[in-house]
Amino acid sequence: MPPEDVEVEAGAGASAERPLVQRWLKSFGTFWWDFLVGDTPELFVGALVAIGIVALLVKASSLNTVAVGGFPALVVLLLAASVGRERRAKRR
Q1: pTM value?
Q2: Structural domain tally of the chain?
Q3: How would you label 56-72 residue by residue, b for 16+ Cβ within 10 Å and e otherwise?
Q4: Which of 19, 39, 56, 78 could be stapled to 46 by a disulfide with Cβ–Cβ 3.0 to 4.6 Å?
Q5: Contacts of residue 64, Cβ cutoff 8 Å, sequence gap at least 6
Q6: Which residue range(s) make up the domain with 16?
Q7: What is the pLDDT of residues 28-56, one digit of tens each?
C-alpha cells in the first residue's frame, strides 16, 4: 500500500503534466495579455478605438489628411484622459 503523501504529490503534479502545446499556448497568451493590456486596459481599448476611427475615416471617403492629423490628436487625448484619471484616483 503506497503512502498517502505519494497520492498528494501525484495530484499536484497532474497540472504540470499538461501537454507541452497547451502550456506553451497559455504562457504565450498570458505574455501578450500582460504586454498589451497590462495595468491599464483603458489604454488598450482606447488605442483600438482610435485605430478603428482612423480606419473608418480612410475607408469611408478620401479623408486621408484628416486621418493623418486626427490619429495623433486622438492618441494625445487618450493619454491625457488616462493621466487625468490616474491623478483623480491618487487624490482620493
Answers
A1: 0.60
A2: 2
A3: ebeeeeeeeeebeeebe
A4: 78
A5: 57, 58
A6: 1-36
A7: 999 999 998 887 888 888 889 888 888 88
